[in-house]
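cron nightly-structures :: item 1 of 1
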Amino acid sequence: MGKNRMSHKRSMLLLAAVTILVFANSLLNGFVGDDNFLILNNNFYTSWSNVRDLFSPEYTTHSVGAIGVQDQKQYYSGSVAYRPVLSLTYFWDYSLWQENPFGYHLSNLIWHLMNVVGVYALMVMVGARQGIALAVAMVFSLHPYRSEAVCSIGYRADLVSTFFLLAAMLTALKGRRGSSTGLMTWMSALMFALAVFAKESAIVFPALLFIYDWIQERGSVRTRLTNVNLKRYAGYVVVALFYLFVYLYVFPNKAAASSQWIGEDIRVHLKSSLLILSEYLFGFFVPLMVDVIPPVYAPQPELYSSFYFTAFMMLLMCGLVLFGILARRDRLSAFFILWFVIAMIPVSNIIPLVNPMAHRFLYLPSIGMSFVLVQLIVRLGEWMNTRTNARHFVTIFLVGYMGICAARTFTLNSYWKHDYIMALRMYQSKPQYPTSLLFMAITYSKIGELDKAKEMILKGLQHGLEDPRAYYILAQSTTTDHVMAKEYLQEGILKYPSYGMLYTALGRVYLLEGDLDEGLTFVQKGVDMAPTYRGFCYLVQAHLMRGDELQARQTLERSRQLLTDPKFYAFIENIINHRTEITLPQDIGI
């Protein structure tokens, strides 16, 4: 017993060492993408006193609100769904690290490391041989699909949720084998509650546990649904129903409710969803092909030739056949195949998702896929050993696959260093995809390359780009051409009437043209929807141009309440104090 314990410790130390080695470069990364909105441009996590707002209606952030914020320190959680357990980890991080990205990346790495050890413990608990358990945990740890979840602070939900789900599974299985079954079951239910309130996709846990019990006990579904067995699942059902009530009625996910089919109809949606699944499987078997994927991404069927689409479908069918063969011969393989299938359901686009595809979505499902892949590699190695009278093909294949994963993951981690590298890599890897073009345009606009930004946006619109920021960037690139800027902004408002920045930008154009009434109307609407320093500055100028200094000062005071940087407040106040010495309106851009 002691020898086995020491052996397991050595395995876990090896897992920890390799994981830290491969992901160490992520600790040098900065804030990227949503991290900026979540941490740098957000005062929600700056004080523990805000924890009380985890239970307020303002907790969730609509996706339109997130992309509309520019200057304001918005009071948002950064989540479009109700994830208070996840939010608590950000409160903790901010209290320790403030705005130092190293600490946040260290937290992500620790969460991932705990999950790797949890996967190893799960494999041992369900009866996998130690060598298989080590290989599965290593594949789970090192696969390039891990890079997105580990390197992005804003995508931590999958790490936290998976940790508590693994804890729930391990606690439940321990209860099955010990005398304290009731206590372990309720502790498992508590872990499940923490998992699902970290990310909603953990709702599949009761199904995973039920399938494991069914396969291990070889009972029929009818037998499993007896009153005696149902007691095992009562706590999980209560937690699941309570979460669904909160998710659907108390804190509804408005962004998810507004999600639509990928493409124009359900046929295109289904074809795109199959392509997504095929790309997931292809990347899992061929890790060198995994690349950076934009936060909002879905394959476009029209960009795939019939040959590639057929190849993807054949890969999918071959994968299903291989899984079926394994499932018939091995109960554990059957369980982990079903683990992958069940865990994929919430992220499979059966119900349209806000983000149709992301590598982080595979974090939980890939536990099952890692086991199946290791089994396939072992079977192939054993077959090669038999054919060649050798003994080392299993080790060669496993180490080779893990080495490829480690090298690719280490490279991908470096792409998450900052926004420019990320955007450039997105564009280089998928130059025809609308989201790649959008993020390249955003990067160009931030560094003042507005002509290049416009070129990216126009190309993106030709390829089906649908995002309100596209029209905002187009207006930025034509600030001196008021006619063209108005056309872009009016088209944008028509398509995206809830994006406040477009109204502010259009109001600016009217003010510069001398149309005071239209300018004031649009700027006021823009400020009401998305308060920004530029918006307040134009609004104050509009009131001054109307000769209403009192209203201008009241507007200035309102900006003090909503905005946080005293430099911008002083700038606007200076305009009021020197209104007779300068020509109004002063153009401060978009």
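cron nightly-structures :: done
The chain has three domains: 2-413, 430-498, 512-590.
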